[in-house]
Amino acid sequence: MTAGNASGICDGAAATAIACGDFVGGHKLAPIGRSLAWGTVGAESSCMGIGPAPAAVKALHKADLALEEMELMESTPRSHLSIALLKGNSARSADKPCPHGVIAIGHPLAASGTRITTYVFHALQIARKGFDLTAARIGGGQGTAVIVEEF
Length: 151
Prior knowledge:
Blueprint: H1 21-26, E1 33-41, H2 52-63, E2 72-75, H3 77-86, H4 112-127, E3 131-138, E4 142-150
Parallel strand pairs: 2-3
Antiparallel strand pairs: 1-4, 3-4
């Protein structure tokens, strides 16, 4: 992460069209994927970087999946570190790196979640792979994670 792609510095916007399965089927739409589960947690603010790990655990539990089943993982650098540590790995030995460097192009305030998740849906389509765990830390100790699936 550099000053150029920090959330408070980069500009951007993001938008998505989200619909339930009945609406998609009834209108013959072609979705690119679906959100399976998400988790949001609060952590002690003095430990600001750890929130994504328990959020990931929460999302994985809701989806009835294991971290090892994730084909891709995209996250902010600190989020990736906390998830790697969750697995008992060092940051360098995390076996599901951020293959597309999703944060490298920036994560603008108030648009980060949509921008990152939309990017991940497209990355899964290109890779033709199943599940992705995306996580981010939020100032003040919070963390959020989402598991998405490619169609």
